[in-house]
Amino acid sequence: MSTASVKTLDRTLTRHVAREDEPRQRPLDYRLISRLFAFTKPYATPRNWLLVTVAIRSIQLPALTWMVAAVIRGPIAEKSVSGVIEGAGLFAILALSTQWVMHYRQRLALELGEAVVTDLRKALFAHIQRMPMQWFHQTKVGRVISRMTSDVEDLRLGVQDVLFVSLVQIGQMILAATAMLWYDATLFLIVLGLAPIIWFINQHFHKKLSIALRNMRESFSRITATLAESVLGIRVTQAFVRQTENAAIFEDLAEDHSRFNTVVMRTHGQFLPLLELNSQIFIALMLIVGGWRAFQPESTTNVGDLVGFFFMANLFFAPISILGNQYNQAMTAMAGAERLFQLLDTPPEWVDPPDAVELTDLRGEVTFEHVNFEYEQGRPVLIDFSFQVQPGQTIALVGHTGSGKTTIINLVSKFYLATTGRVLIDGHDIQTLSGDALHRRMGIVLQQNFLFYGTVAQNVRLGNPAATDEEVAHVFDQLDCADLIASLPQGIHTPVGERGVSLSLGQRQLICFARAMIADPRILILDEATSSIDSQTEARLQRALAKLLAGRTSFVVAHRLSTIREADRVLVLDHGQLIEQGTHEELLQLNGTYAGLHRRFISQ
Ligand SMILES: Nc1ncnc2c1ncn2[C@@H]1O[C@H](COP(=O)(O)OP(=O)(O)OP(=O)(O)O)[C@@H](O)[C@H]1O
Ligand SMILES: [Mg+2]
Fold it and tell me: Which helix (H) or strand (E) holds 73?
């Protein structure tokens, strides 16, 4: 495979992981900050204590430094033993209290950040679950996941660190500056001139480092995505003998990753020594200036003051690079907050009206009145669709792939709303009905059946959470497939993987039937899977289906003749239009589209 095509494949593989097109940072924004701060409201007491510890912390380090200098200038210079002991004792007590406060400051900050982040995650998840189907079709899974993971993580650092660490550091800088001014104002002005240099070095390397880190993270997510696809798609890979090509793609990715890793290390390696060298050069400079000034005949500088000044200079410089990092962290958190709040603020395109009717005793009459529907504007999928179904009837939907069968089902289930025209359930416009109440009286088996991680029984209970083990087992009896369940290692308590991998296709389908059945729905919707199942299971599914459909209004997207023949009415779709309807026999007599489909496609 040529490098170019490897690169193209690489890009398609990773489309859903990378965040390249989303900005990593944005300027500080008061609106976002205050909104974020509002999330700390439920934790006002610990937050206020945190602010108290922050205030104490910012005084403590300068005070410690001040004490050391005072002991040197005073008792040590005067050679007073008792003075030195007293000074050292006080220093030890202050040091102890400093570490104690530091412990609580960190602990409170961690707890606050954790609580805020957990609340945000819960709010986001609840919000996402309320979004209508359309949103999930338009939003990449990778996007949703990165909102929940990296954005929330960035915010956590923002909440835990940025404000509180910065306050401590700023307080420390101000106090150190005041002390230096007091010791030696001229020397302080020299120091002040050096501060911006440290700031710029810091920012320059930080930018380099953050680009390198981002490249590294993205290359790593490409590796995980590729690995996941390789494992999930191993059958296809082996069947099409793509092992060598896949290995080539992976080797490229692994080498990329290693290169980005090296850049990160190298940048780190340049930055730290340079920063250290920088402050050492300043110290040398201060030694010269300070020494020269002390040698002047009229000088009032004493050695103790100079020592104090040097200590304070350290306290003044250290926060500069820390503040630089916090500033960058803050901008990253801003970008995360902006995206999170944007998602939280995205209202669902539609919600049930506040006075939505809860249909508790559903009869199951379904009417479509001149329904037009489009997923994307300008691309009609259903055109002027009208029909009526009496309670208890079984309707088979038949048509070519893409003709709109699943779409009809989506409208009956209120997953989408008609673009124009009306869908009526028991004579009520579906828009005025409560979706939740409707879904409780509806059983839905989707084209791509889905089993959650858990046991068979847990999956069936989604249809009726109150059902006992006996009731779950009874449903399989009713569907005439108790023996199939009995053949599973732990019966209804057999765990099924995230994708139900340990079960056959037919078994999975039966569990989905059971899930629909246990809800005792008035309206049943079944999007029959096209994949072929062995004839024995097939016969079993047919029997189960007959039991499931009995006495309920049912919509079945049917691919099998046996299902269609049993239906009260067959709706034949073509490019979103209802072109024929009637029973199987009537439609064969008509000798139109259905008869053609029947001859060519429908499994016998
Ligand atoms: N979420 C969506 N967004 C945009 N277009 C969609 C969406 N879902 C389906 N479509 C389009 O709507 C048309 C009808 O799709 P639908 O899923 O209803 O077909 P179908 O009859 O169920 O096909 P199949 O037999 O393959 O399941 C197709 O052209 C399809 O591309
Ligand atoms: Mg379909």
Answer: none
